[in-house]
Each structure stands twice: as C-alpha cells, then as structure tokens.
Amino acid sequence: MKKYIFILLFFLAINSLFAQFDFFSPTTKLGGYGELHYNSIKPENGKSSATLDFHRFVLFYSHSWTEKWSLKAEVELEHNFVKNGQGELELEQAYVNYHHSEAFGFQAGVILSSVGLINETHEPPTFLGTERPDYHKLIIPTTWFGNGVALYGLVSGFDYKFTVMEGLNANKFNEKSAIRDSRYKGYRSDADNLLYTGRIDYIGLPGLRLGGSFTYNNAGGDSLNNAINIFELHARYRANNIYADAEFGNISYNKGNLQTSQGYYVNFGYALSALFGIETKIIPFIQYNDLNTASSTKTGGDEEKRYHIKQIMVGLSILPIDEVVFKIDYSQDKIELNNKKTNYLNIGVGYMF
Length: 353
Fold this sequence. Notes:
It contains 4 helices and 16 strands. It is mainly beta and 353 residues long. The protein has one domain (2-352): Porin. Strands 1-2-3-4-5-6-7-8-9-10-11-12-13-14-15-16 form a 16-stranded antiparallel β-barrel.
C-alpha cells in the first residue's frame, strides 16, 4: 500500500489544475551561494593542522512555465574538484513545483527533507558560525536530500510540509556518525522502505519560527530492517537585532547495538549596527553544542561516552550587505570519555544571490 502513495499524490496534483492566467510570461532565474573556509585544528595532545577549502559552490536554477508550475534545481560542487573519491558533485534539488495557493503546493523530484532549521535553508549568510553547527552534521545529516514528493503550505500562521522520499540504508547506521552515512542521495535509492516526514512551524509573529518534525523509516538492510524514528524541535528568532537559535533532536533505532542518538545546540547573537548607526551588520555570538551519536547503546559503558561531545564557541559575523558575510569563530570540544580537548579556529567568507 505504501508504494502507491506516489500515485495518489500525483493525482492530487493533476486534479488541482486550474486555468492559468493568459498574461503570464515564462521566466527563468539563476541563483546560488558559496563559501571559502580557513580551518585550524589544535588537539590537546597532537599535531596541529590548518586547511583552506572552498567548501561549496552552488548554482540554483528556476524556470516558471506558468504562475503555478515551475522547475527548481540546484547543483553543488564541494571541495573545489572531484577526483579519485575527493570532492563531491551533487544534484541537491531538482523538482517540479505546483504552487496552487499559499495554503497548498506540491513538489516531485529530488527534494530536501523538511527536518530542522538549516536543512532547507542553509546559505552562509543565514546562519551564525563559519561552519554549520555540528548538530547539523551528526544528528540531522544536513544537507539531507533524495528522490520523493512533498506537500506544503501556509495556513493561519502555520507553515507545514509533508514529505515522502527514499529510505535509508540500515547497514550503514553506526555509533560514530548515526544515520549520516546511510543516505542514498538520490542514487538508486530504496523505494521499498520509504521515509515519511511531517513538519509544522508557527511563523505568525515577526521574526519567529517555532516548530518541530517527526520522521519514520523502516530502513532496509541486507538481512533485517531497522526502523528509526527522528523527533526534533527547533526555534529561531530574527528581529530587533537579535539572532537566536535552538534545536533538539533524538533518533531512536529498533534493532542493533545503537539505540538512540541525541543532541542539541543553542546560540545567541546581537547585531551592534544600531548602536553605531551603520548599515553593516556586526554580530558577535556565542554557541553551545551537546551531541552524542551513541547516547544509548545495549553495551553501555564507555561506548556511550566515546562519542559524547560538548562544545562552546564564540564568534563574529560581519555582513556589509545581507547577501555577503565574513565570519570568524573560536571553539573548544571536549569528549566525555577522556576529557580530551580540541581547539578550532575558523575563518570564512560566504555569499548568496
């Protein structure tokens, strides 16, 4: 029965067709974003290292055939080139979009999972910190995309989205990286065990986004399936010169040694621009992460402490215009098992258009 949900959603879109406005002219738009990073790592007992990396170069393409029907696509090059397993070239989005009204829309193709604050909106000027928060690597595997369909809309201040997309590969769940390595990324993906996500956010107050999502997937494996549930809550405030975010996520596993992965982060920044009467946004901020990809295991003991990381970060973001950002931050990680500390200095420049 689950396999026929694509057919049902397809007919929902077809049956929603309305006459298009005769005066609409097809339009094409180009956009994108990119970011260059300097990363310095200094372990407490070990060799220091530093790298320069053009982490991402992304081009976004949109074509509107009518006021309701459009194509949206995004191609991403990571780490400057692709050769011998280095770098990545990804089709991160490529979907047909039917926007019937503010209350209802439909997407089909390569789509983004509607989980957390950053997975769907992750251009460098939109978040604090040179790198995306570690929460969005180890708990929510940003950027998470795949083949699927979605229904979305905005009703009475509530923004909703329901996605059905390719499942995960249960063979690649592990204590170190949770579900991150299990994504198919649209390549010959699992359509027998689909993944379902429902998200709802309240955005009725200026600058506020408050909501959460729930994801279920009976992930397929070589011999046994491993059902997972992802529950996450998120909040964001962007008004009155305040930049604040908070997210919490928990992944539960039905089989295997790994039982749960859990984490959260909070940050707070304040734009000093108003104090100095300048247009350039100068935003000092502080961020705290607490993450554990093996927060609960059947074996317990040291295994649950090995991947428990606490991190404190201070930083500065400078936006001469809203589409360009310069960032610097300093952070320290501490692993619970051995109290080993690692210091990080990150500097970056990012843009979007």
